[in-house]
Amino acid sequence: MYAEERQAAIVEQARSRGRVEVAGLAQELNVTTETVRRDLSVLERHGVLRRVHGGAIPVERLGFEPGLADRDRAMSDEKERIARAALAEVPAEGAILLDAGTTTARLAEILPAEATLTVVTNSLPIALTLSSRPNLTVLTVGGRIRGRTAAMVDAWALRVLEDTLVDVAFVGTNGLSVERGLTTPDTAEAAVKRAMLRAARHTVVLADHTKIGNDHLARFGDAGDIDVLITDRGIDPDQAGSLEACGIRVDRA
User: Fold this and answer.
1) Are strands 55-58 and 49-52 parallel, antiparallel or unpaired?
2) Rounded alpha-carbon distances, angstroms, from residue 234 to 8, 12, 150
């Protein structure tokens, strides 16, 4: 088994079990514990797992919110495919909203050069990425900037979004389930995301498959508030079917 195949198997087991142990992995994969530790170190550098005593836990199962750099490394290839698939939902002109997030940031980077758009965002990195594009009008919602996500939140952001109407909102989420809907760890970000859903004629959620079926502290919308979910091919077919039964179009990038 090649290292890449072994590491993929480790990630799959961690996500299905919630935790993996070094000794158990060594026995199951028929390798040394040193090899397993090296694999876990590689996966931690990629932002997929977090090392704990004796093993590792997938980052989406942690009891705290990962920082921007960790989240950007996690599921990087999947996020790139999701962003490219989302281009099909971008209008040639009009107004769109880009939520703060690592997948929406990738979409911002590849917006078509010929598109004439007004882009509303609560993301400082996205605003900076798009600020030099002459064909775009970039509007920020303002407010307090959360250091962990570089998202603009609180009353100023909410007041602007109350008076905003866009054609399409591209929204990120930390969790999505039929039972709990859309969830995120931070209450201030949840309030802004809730306002974004209200400010859009059409809502597209960009979320890799590790977010599907997970729940977090603050709920900001129902599954039925989503028009389109763009995810990756790792999504569980049963979960996809349950979401489609809510009226969501599920695209697998």
Assistant:
1) antiparallel
2) 12, 10, 28
Q: CB-hemisphere CA count at 13 Å for 146?
A: 22
Rounded Cα distance between 218 and 151, Å, is 16
- Convert the pLDDT of each residue in 18-34 to its tens digit: 889 999 999 999 999 99
Q: Mutual orientation of helices 22-29 and 33-45 as an angle, nearest 10°?
A: 110
Beta-carbon-side half-sphere exposure of residue 87 (alpha carbons within 13 Å): 17
Which residues are CB-contacts of 15 (< 8 A; sequence separation ≥ 6)?
58, 60, 61, 210
In angstroms, the first-to-last Cα distance of the chain is: 27
| pTM value surpassing 0.85 | no
User: Cα Rg for the chain, rounded, in angstroms?
Assistant: 19
Q: What mean pLDDT is predicted for residues 226-251?
A: 95
Q: Report whether 246 contacts 205 (CB < 8 A).
A: no
pLDDT digits 0-9 by tens, 155-212: 999 999 999 999 999 999 999 999 999 999 899 999 999 999 999 999 999 999 888 9
Residue 237, exposed/middle/buried by CB under 10 A (0-12, 13-18, 19+)? exposed
Categorize the per-residue pLDDT at 69 as very low, low, confident or very high, splitting at 50, 70 and 90: low
**Cα angle vertex 209, ends 72, 71, to 5°?**
15
